């Protein structure tokens, strides 16, 4: 039996919003050790939960039983372990263990002149943690990180290891893991259930990803207003014209014209030989300088003080922050441009909701009303602009972006500075009100999915297929926890 690491008995997520006291805390470094932990837990009647970087704000990583921290399962694996079908393009397949951080993955890919076709705005998550919650970036032709997965290697109940792919998969035989037996499953429903599964089906040990050649991205950030921009948010307009498109909106009006200001971020591939000066290699100078010079704790303390002491100044502080982000041109390697950078160090938590392409603009209009009302009635303010990111729909049954093949969703994110008075209340209020516009909350962000009327069968049309696969892999309930209880996922 691998020994539990007794040094750290209290587990906290990145902003201390979730705190757990697992009975056993493990940091395995081989698949054999994961198998041993699962078997030991089952023998003693305990449950098992894998956790990555703890960068989810919801309770999805909590357990009172055995917690497996995956950070030591962080090796890049050789594609020689695979047995690809003859026609496969193996040059763009990449195999890694679950606990590799996205930043480590980017460095490893870059060293091979490869890159992720898309990613979120942050790189501190583990690859398995990010994929299992359908973490996304932007782009109506690009899916979430889950869309890059060709195969998942999962350790399930009894310590059985499964290599799961689509029905028309990439392999002729399972991945080779030394003397560990692996079963190859090529089945669409098992695949679409296991990639985005929040650790409910087992411990993801490794992933096979489809990557692309390295590329440069150019980012441009311009200031505009919602009334102007909303008309251009069409496939024939801004959405179709840009590889990545994001809109940051001021929730409040700061002038009498009755409009909300916003910042539009456009990112597009540029030629490899594009010349870059020092200025083009950095984001807006004020943003860059604050990131370099201001320690995180000081920036967090100043912002918290300003927002809580002078709440009525929130709209203007947000406006100022939007203006400092304006930027004519930033060109760099794709993964550097897609990473939001220093803003990720601000201690904050957020709610993020996926809206259908047909209803997100109605949702935005409703949000403006809600924000205005709670500011007027209770001086409660959301302490950040909210962002719109447009993402291709997904076929994974429990991805928030689930939808028709050629459509997109608009992911709207509401960050709140840690320590904001009324922060959680605002997010709960928004979540509650946004279900009526077809909104589905991001699994890794603040959410109450499963509670009350917002059950998974109502939010996800293919939930019954996911449940069939849950029951296929989890007959004993080994991977149950607080989260599966609230979502009524029962073996
Ligand atoms: C600063 C910051 C920026 C962010 N930016 C974005 C963004 O741009 N886009 C976006 O979509 N999200 C974003 N997020 C949310 C984040 O990407 C997700 O919450 C992600 O799931 C966190 O990854 P993690 O490695 O920390 O996983 P954890 O939070 O540790 O775990 C997430 C889930 O994955 C499961 N899990 C983890 N590892 C395994 C494994 N090996 N096997 C089985 N299950 C596993 C856990 O049980 C849990 O259910 C951001 C979060 C932060 C803090």
Automatic annotation (TrEMBL):
Coiled coil: none
Database matches in Gene3D superfamilies: 3.30.465.10, 3.30.70.2520, Uridine Diphospho-n-acetylenolpyruvylglucosamine Reductase, domain 2
Residues annotated as domain FAD-binding PCMH-type: 18-214
Keyword Flavoprotein found: yes
Keywords: FAD, Flavoprotein, Membrane, Oxidoreductase, Transmembrane, Transmembrane helix
Family: Belongs to the oxygen-dependent FAD-linked oxidoreductase family.
Name of the featured protein: L-gulono-1,4-lactone dehydrogenase
């Amino acid at each position: 039996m691998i020994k539990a690491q007794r040094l750290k008995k209290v587990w906290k997520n990145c902003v201390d919003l979730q705190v757990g006291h697992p009975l056993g805390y493990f940091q395995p470094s081989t698949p054999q050790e994961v198998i041993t932990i699962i078997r030991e837990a089952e023998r003693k009647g305990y449950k098992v939960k894998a956790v990555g970087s703890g960068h989810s704000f919801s309770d999805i990583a909590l357990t009172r039983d055995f917690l497996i921290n995956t950070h030591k399962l962080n090796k890049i694996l050789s594609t020689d372990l695979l047995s690809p079908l003859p026609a496969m393009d193996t040059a763009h397949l990449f195999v890694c263990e679950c606990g590799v951080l996205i930043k480590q993955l980017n460095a490893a890919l870059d060293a091979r002149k490869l890159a992720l076709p898309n990613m979120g705005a942050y790189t501190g998550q583990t690859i398995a943690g990010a994929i299992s919650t359908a973490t996304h970036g932007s782009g109506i032709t690009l899916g979430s990180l889950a869309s890059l997965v060709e195969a998942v290697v999962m350790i399930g109940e009894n310590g059985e290891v499964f290599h799961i792919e689509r029905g028309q998969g990439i392999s002729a035989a399972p991945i080779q893991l030394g003397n560990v037996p692996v079963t190859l499953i090529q089945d669409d429903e098992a695949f679409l259930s296991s990639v985005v599964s929040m650790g409910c089906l087992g411990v993801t040990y490794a992933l096979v990803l489809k990557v692309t050649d390295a590329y440069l991205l150019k980012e441009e950030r311009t200031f505009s207003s919602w009334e102007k921009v909303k008309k251009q948010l069409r496939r024939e307009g801004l959405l179709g014209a840009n590889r990545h498109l994001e809109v940051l909106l001021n929730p409040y009006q700061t002038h009498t014209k009755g409009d909300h200001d916003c910042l539009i971020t456009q990112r597009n591939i540029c030629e490899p030989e594009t010349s870059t000066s020092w200025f083009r290699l950095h984001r807006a100078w004020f943003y860059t300088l604050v990131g370099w010079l201001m320690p995180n704790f000081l920036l967090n303390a100043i912002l918290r003080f300003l927002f809580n002491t002078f709440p009525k100044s929130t709209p203007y502080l947000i406006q100022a922050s939007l203006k400092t982000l304006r930027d004519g041109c930033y060109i760099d390697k794709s993964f550097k441009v897609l990473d939001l950078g220093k803003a990720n160090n601000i201690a904050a938590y957020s709610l993020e909701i996926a809206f259908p392409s047909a209803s997100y603009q109605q949702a935005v209009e409703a949000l403006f009303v809600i924000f205005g009302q709670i500011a007027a009635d209770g001086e409660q303010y959301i302490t950040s602009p909210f962002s719109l990111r447009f993402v291709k729909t997904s076929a994974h049954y429990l991805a928030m972006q689930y939808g028709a093949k050629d459509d997109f969703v608009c992911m709207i994110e509401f960050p709140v500075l840690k320590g904001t008075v009324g922060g959680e209340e605002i997010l709960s209020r928004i979540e509650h009100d946004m279900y009526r516009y077809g909104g589905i909350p991001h699994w890794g962000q603040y959410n109450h999915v499963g509670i009350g009327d917002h059950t998974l069968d109502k939010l996800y049309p293919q939930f019954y297929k996911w449940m069939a696969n849950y029951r296929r892999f989890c007959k004993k309930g080994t991977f149950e926890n607080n989260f599966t209880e609230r979502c009524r996922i029962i073996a």
